[in-house]
TrEMBL record:
Gene source species: Pedobacter lusitanus
Name used for this protein in its record: PepSY domain-containing protein
Domain of life, source organism: Bacteria
Keywords from the UniProt entry: Membrane, Transmembrane, Transmembrane helix
Transmembrane intervals: 12-34, 144-164, 196-216, 346-367
This protein's record includes keyword Oxidoreductase: no
InterPro entries from the UniProt entry: PepSY-ass_TM (IPR005625)
Keyword Transit peptide: no
């Protein structure tokens, strides 16, 4: 069997086998691209009237939230831009519960409380995200997603091999780059699968490869090894010095915040509040609104406030990070299309929408070839040149025959 036939066979059966998974992951990803923008329309508590004064300190926001947190401990505090509300968050990953309290960062007034439980009502975008990550099947679904994305990468590569024109003459180029909208449905469907798939190939390949980072540790480490020229990915967790027999002082949060809040270009900040004796105080200072990659990331000993230094791509100032470390920090923003703001989000949205259509158009191409009933055969009328004797001299006459028949496509 030739390479071409093997490639076509793989594309067909891998596509049929993974079609439903690809559709769900693509359509949920497509919806989630503009999650933040859509939320802003129906969640007015995300915004406040900007004022020409400094935000309140973290401990002041936490103090205002205590009545709503009860016995729960805050795990993080997040500041946005001047027109955005701040949040005090309490997250318990083991129990699957969370409380997010939105506050006015200038007055500490509570604007809204968002409580989530594992068995409680699932908010729309949380439902969409669960489908994108786990097919709503928990850990089993997460493993299926990982396999499905790997298969999709193979489908993208095999698809571009099938698309590649045999000859770069005008007629073949037109078939490869243009959709013949005025043709029959069967032809239009085929063009949508082949031509549209080509135009989003690179975008979908990028989204798939960045998504695999969250599915497989071996892939994440291998990708970093390749981009860094052979360096190992350090994933050690920064820790505080528990031998000091000291107690955490909440005022340390305020001192560190006051120091980092003056960072030039500060577009927001997330503070990780230590929950255990060995936890550090984490700070992420965002340098570009709407993205996660361009940020300075710090870890401080919760007792001494000294920086905890680790050779990790996710720690340190952005401008001092190496190219491989910057690429790793960009992974999420590349995956969701936020890397360059609205233009790349639109591209990610359209690519994901086309990706969701590929299993459908591909199935219709296969079904049309395999199972569609052939139309009845019709005679093909041909004209035959014969000699016929008449009263006049011999003359040539055209006689219609219906001896040849063939199926009508």
């Amino acid at each position: 069997m030739s390479f071409k036939k093997i490639n076509a066979w793989l594309h067909l059966w891998l596509g049929l086998g993974s079609g439903l998974i690809v559709f769900i992951v693509s359509i949920t990803g497509c919806i989630y691209v503009f999650e933040k923008e859509i939320r802003s329309f129906y969640q007015p508590w995300q915004f406040v009237q900007p004022q020409e004064k400094a935000f309140l300190l973290p401990t002041q926001l936490i103090s205002s939230s205590k009545s709503q947190l009860g016995k729960l401990k805050p795990t993080s505090v997040r500041y946005g831009q001047k027109s955005e509300s701040a949040t005090v968050n309490s997250l318990n990953r083991k129990k699957g519960t969370s409380v997010v309290i939105y506050l006015n960062p200038y007055t500490a007034e509570i604007l809204h409380i968002d409580r989530k439980t594992k068995k409680g009502d699932v908010e729309f975008f949380r439902f969409i995200l669960n489908g994108h990550r786990t097919l709503w099947m928990g850990e089993t679904g997460s493993k299926i997603i990982g396999i499905g994305v790997l298969v999709f990468v193979v489908l993208l590569i095999s698809g571009i091999v099938l698309w590649w024109p045999k000859k770069w003459i005008k007629s073949i180029r037109d078939q490869s780059f243009k959709i013949k909208w005025n043709a029959r449905f069967k032809r239009v469907n085929y063009d949508l699968h082949k031509v549209a798939g080509f135009y989003v190939f690179l975008v979908l390949l990028l989204i798939s490869l960045t998504g695999l980072v969250y599915s497989y540790k071996w892939y994440s480490k291998s990708l970093y090894w390749v981009t860094s020229g052979g360096k190992s990915l350090t994933q050690a967790k920064p820790l505080s010095d528990t031998t000091l027999n000291a107690e955490f002082a909440p005022a340390n949060l305020d001192k560190l915040y006051s120091k980092l809040a003056t960072t030039p270009g500060n577009a927001g900040m997330t503070i990780a509040v230590p929950a255990k004796a060995s936890d550090v105080i984490g700070f992420v200072v965002y340098l570009k609104a709407g993205t996660l990659y361009k940020a300075d990331r710090y870890a401080f000993d919760q007792y001494t406030m000294k920086p905890v230094i680790l050779n990790s791509p996710l720690l340190g100032k952005y401008e001092e990070a190496s190219i491989p470390d910057k690429i790793r920090r960009m992974n999420y923003d590349l995956h969701v299309g936020a890397i360059m703001g609205l233009p790349t989000k639109i591209i990610a949205f359209l690519a994901s929408l086309i990706s969701a259509s590929l299993p459908i158009t591909g199935f219709l191409v296969w079904y049309g070839k395999k199972f569609k009933k052939k139309k009845g055969k019709q005679p093909l009328v041909q004209e035959k040149m014969v000699l016929k004797k008449t009263n006049s001299p011999w003359e040539v006459k055209k006689v219609s025959t219906a001896a040849i028949q063939e199926p009508v496509a």
